[in-house]
Amino acid sequence: MARGLVLMILSAGWFTGCATYTLRMKATVLPKDSSAVSPRLATSKIGKIMILPPSGTKRGEFDTQVSAFEKELIKQGLTPISGAITGRVVLEESTDKEKKTEAAQNLSDMERALIMAKKSGADAILQIGQFDWLPLDETRYFIQDTNNAYTEVDRGAYQAWAGIKQSFLSPWLKFVGRLAEVTSGEVVASFDVQSAPNWNLPADYEASYSGDGVRQSENFDYGGMVWQDAKISHHKKLPVRDLNLRRNLEARGLKFEFGGWYTEAMNQTIQKVIAAVAKNIASGNK
Length: 286
Prior knowledge:
This protein has 286 residues and is α+β, with helices and mostly antiparallel strands.
């Protein structure tokens, strides 16, 4: 009898330890948009927009990003005007060449842009304050629930959860900028749009974990598989095997800059953030 009781206890413990918990991460999360758009934008009738790169940007340094903004503005029916012409600003009231140069140098980027925007016929200036990749941070959060699964939660709920949980790290893209009306200089929109590569996965990610939170398998290699291979293989169950340490490091984003599916994910993240800004301008301008 005692032996049977021991076997029952051991069996119960064995089944508890072997419980499998499934974590499902949806492929796409929309960018976090904390922008504020003034009602005045709707009456401004903005059609032509000059794009002004971040202050201190060297010529040619921001061309790729500006080109991406131009494409999205065109898609929204708006006309972009190159900000490069702000380098031609001079004060026409003075005939003294040295005074012209000195006065132009004392103007801020926005002041120079406003002068040239008026001359070029631009209706507004999109001033980019920040468009940078920030260091790795936790960007997706999951807690182990009672249904043999993980539930995705927000940062606050994740931090408050005392049980077993999983987080996924990623670089973080942040755009901060403003839209100023040329005639009045009034700021009619303030933009704050953020996103992350693991908000733009090649496919829904699914992983199996033991009851104590150790990952056992995944449907594509979160750590390094290239985009197309991940899309093809996402329906399979890939065992983690003896690569736990390497996969753990890679899953925490330590290879984001070296290739893999996240290279394409980073490109999509940039495109979606820019598209969100352009859409804000177009929708607020209707």
